[in-house]
Amino acid sequence: MMLSAAMESGRMHHAWLLTGPSGIGKATLAYRFARHLLSGLPRTGSLHLDSAHPTFRRVAAGTHADLLTVEREWDEKRKKLRGEIVIETVRSVAGFLRLTPAEGGWRVVIIDGAEDINRNAANALLKVLEEPPPRAVLILVCSAAGRLLPTIRSRCRRLRLATLTDPTVDTLLQRYLAEADPATRDRLTSLAEGSIGRALRLSDSDGIPAAQLVERVLANLPNLPANLGQDIADALGRGEDAFSTFMDLLRSAVAAAVRDVARGRFDPDQARLLGPRPLDAWVEIWQSLGSMQAETEDLYLEKRQAIVSSLAMLASQN
């Protein structure tokens, strides 16, 4: 592995960018890397650290003096996570790294969800990357590297993680959802798209019933019954998670169909779903569905109307 090889070489790069789809273990890898750096153990070619080790326990408790974790902060006023990582948060990174390591080794910063850094915060981070302190390592965990400034990406060593195989997702579901029956695990695996995080989120948010509603929509395209949007809104209820899950799955289905058609690997159902529209029109629809979902959630708009409008957008032949 690139990380353990870098540790063994003794030439540790000051910044790492861990990329790949959401929910595949990037943050887990970042913490394993940080724990091993902070432990001061000999370089063994492995990032494994026994859970009984004091460094493991302090990192897990968030009390290690030489580790700082940065992510979107909680907005007390709106009772939800902020939409961005702001400049004040990133400035704390620079201050932290200028300190002498408390335990004489490394100082490590993990920025989880680095794609959420806003422009001003990104410029502040760039200054840190341009003049890195000695014995300091920044680990950027990112699911959408294209949203980072090119100058940030160019100053990091990049490690891209692939999606998990279906057998791996199923094995992990057996560990985390031991009470789930095989049919449920199979369905969650098929919806997971190689992400154990996505599978677990779908399990927590009634993802299987929501997926059945999405399948009902797709089966009726392009001639959707006039009352289908209202029926789906009734079936979902008023829960915010139910709306978000349905919209996420709907957008994923559109994206999968467009991707397969573009690669020439589509089936008749996908061809019927896309109909006569060109692929670039479907990309615009996918983006519009995302915007409608975000506005509905961020501005507390009527979810029922958002569902009706989304289905009307799919059914329109214009």
What does the secondary structure layout of this molecule look like, with pairings?
Blueprint: H1 2-9, E1 15-19, H2 26-39, H3 54-61, E2 67-70, E3 74-75, E4 80-81, H4 87-98, E5 107-112, H5 119-130, E6 136-142, H6 150-154, E7 157-160, H7 166-176, H8 182-192, H9 196-204, H10 207-220, H11 228-236, H12 240-262, H13 268-274, H14 279-298, H15 303-315
Parallel strand pairs: 1-6, 1-7, 2-5, 5-6
Antiparallel strand pairs: 3-4
Mean pLDDT: 88
- Main pleated sheet: 5 strands, parallel
The separation of the N and C termini measures 50 Å
Shape: elongated
Strand order of the largest sheet: 2-5-6-1-7
CATH class of the largest domain: Alpha Beta
Cα-atom Rg, whole angstroms?
22 Å
Helix-residue proportion: 55-70%
